[in-house]
Specification:
about 300 residues; alpha/beta; 6-stranded mixed β-sheet; elongated
Length: about 300
């Protein structure tokens, strides 16, 4: 649990627990605020997982008493709120939030940093977590004129730093499905592409990284109904077995992003993932296809 300390993920989980207790007690936010002599906005911030909230034991105990929380719930929430007051080593991305991370992308990076499993479907490009620097530079430079050179280099540096996520202790499992077209789309020329495919073969040797290819021979598939997307699954609370955050589907765009966590939305992307997963090659066959594509580049 220590790696979750101070994160927005933990705070949202605490907020959901408090919301459930308040609802079970039959109180509205206004009624709870009046009884606790707090502002309604404060109750709302607690339940929303707002990082500005500072949990004092005396305030937490008052809420637990008002909500008639069980001893088990009280012990759990006192422990969890205490963790928000402890220091936590900064994640790599904190140094970049004011310079090279678009506002709409910061939340995804935070969620990705806390995910247990990351699933990526990419029909066009190698995903950012597996890109080489040269490949990333060419991707960031397209379309020409959208970003200036300084911004390109800042974003590429962030992309390279993000990859440390895969080698840290208790790293998440990354499961990637690539359309076969990704292997043949020359990004930056043959030399850059060969380096990228070599890197792809190297990272598939890690126990927590899986790369599978969706071949052209798969024909019509569920991914055709969706653009590139990611799905994040989160750890469970060791005390309760509940997920600290509901599963999430994420779709990145040129100027923004969609965070999809409603059950129907997640279910739709899960159906797509299941369909392309059935049609994708297994790991060994995928490595053979990557190797064949690499040999075609180096022999040319």
């Amino acid at each position: 649990m220590s790696d979750m300390v101070g994160s927005a993920l933990l705070r949202r989980y605490i907020g959901r627990r408090f919301t459930a207790l308040r609802n079970r007690a039959g109180l509205t936010q206004d009624q709870a605020a009046d009884a606790l002599q707090r502002g309604r906005a404060t109750i709302g911030r607690i339940e929303d997982g707002d990082e500005r909230v500072r949990f004092r034991d005396i305030d937490v105990k008052a809420m637990l008493e008002l909500y008639q929380a069980s001893q088990e719930d009280s012990e759990l929430l006192l422990a969890l709120t205490a963790e928000t007051r402890n220091g936590r080593k900064k994640s790599w991305w904190h140094d970049y939030t004011d310079t090279a991370l678009p506002d709409w992308f910061e939340l995804y990076v935070l969620l990705e940093d806390n995910a247990q499993t990351i699933r990526d479907y990419e029909p066009e490009l190698i995903p950012g977590l597996l890109q080489t620097r040269a490949y990333a530079e060419h991707v960031m430079s397209t379309p020409v004129g959208y970003l200036d050179e300084g911004e390109i280099q800042r974003r590429v540096t962030v992309r390279m730093e993000r990859q440390s996520l895969l080698t840290r202790p208790r790293a998440p499992h990354l499961d990637v499905i690539l359309n076969e077209a990704v292997l043949h789309r020359l990004v930056g020329g043959a030399e850059v592409m060969a380096e990228q495919l070599n890197h792809l073969l190297e990272v598939t040797q890690r126990a927590n990284v899986s790369v599978r290819i969706l071949p052209w021979s798969a024909g019509v598939h569920g991914g055709m109904a969706a653009s590139a997307f990611s799905m994040l699954d989160f750890p469970t609370d060791p005390h309760t077995g509940e997920q600290l955050e509901p599963p999430l589907a994420y779709v990145d765009t040129l100027t923004g992003a969609m965070y999809l966590n409603k059950p129907g939305e997640v279910s739709a992307y899960q159906l797509v993932w299941d369909d392309i997963g059935k049609r994708a090659l297994d790991g060994a066959s995928s490595r053979e296809m990557i190797t064949t594509a690499l040999e075609g580049l180096t022999s040319a």
